[in-house]
Write a structure and sequence with these properties.
Number of helices: 9
Distance between the termini: 85 Å
Order of helices and strands: EEHHHHHEEHHHH
Radius of gyration: 22 Å
Mean pLDDT: 82
Largest sheet: 2 strands, antiparallel
Helix content: 55-70%
Strand content: under 5%
Number of strands: 4
Shape: globular
Low-confidence stretches: 1-60
Structural class: mainly alpha
Amino acid sequence: MAPPTSPIDVPGTQEIAVPAAARAEPRTTEPEPGRTGPDVGPVPGPDPEPDLVPPSSSRAGRNLVAAIGVGLGLGAVIIASLVVYRPAFLLVIAVAILVGVVELVRALESGSVRAPLLPLLVGTVAMLALAWTRGPDGLVVGFLLTVVAVLLWRLGDGPDDYLRDASAGVLVALYVPLLAGFAVLLLVPDDGVARVLAFIATVVGNDVGGYTAGVLFGRHPMAPTVSPKKSWEGMAGSVVACVLVATPIVVLALDGPWWGGVLVGVALAVTATLGDLGESLIKRDLGIKDMGTLLPGHGGIMDRLDSLLPSAAVAYLLLSWVAPPL
């Protein structure tokens, strides 16, 4: 007896009968390991083989024990640098951003894009130093000089793919050190420690609130083709958590209005989530899972900076408005 068949519509052709046994089952999109933010619960589909899933992995597909341990360690380093000696935080930022630049450039190379690394590293140090010593104007000047250096440096490799490689270098300069410079600007005022803690704690709240709400209640994907584990329920959890974290800090530590804390919380929930999605889009375009392997349970440094970088710029602008430095 012939196997059962099922017609398949092909535009511009007649129906084609294909044996049922040859019809492929719909593929489920593999979740990205080490992600945080508004996540959905388990991805539909057959259960993975037991021996392929580490015992410490969570329902969201990440090594939760390693992720928590690394997160606490990073938090301790940041808090210690802020409390003990404020300029030490500049060193923490500089190291993280330099590693992030290297990770992003190496990731681009996997897609045959050659962004000039040396001028980007030198420009990173210049931008952060000028932001600390000369404020916003210094940050902008450092960025423009870095862009010029990237364009000139790439000329040495000839005209082939010049526009592509030079554009990638400008993107790296804009995406990583320029946005990180706003975190330095947050630190400059006398109450800079409180401003930096408000910014970082709110973004952490986004990750924790989104992860928790997504795993428990996530059912409606936000951007399934970019990051299948982001859900609208997780986004709601992110907003609530960010508001609960930002409001008391803005009111008590920065003497700002309560509505300012709500505004900062909602805005950072949006920017942190967009940062997650933006990096996920880059990784999917390049065909990689993580930007690096430096942080167990998280991936690379860039996999932790993705939500922080755009949020730093928005936090600086909003806090300068709702709680101006004295």
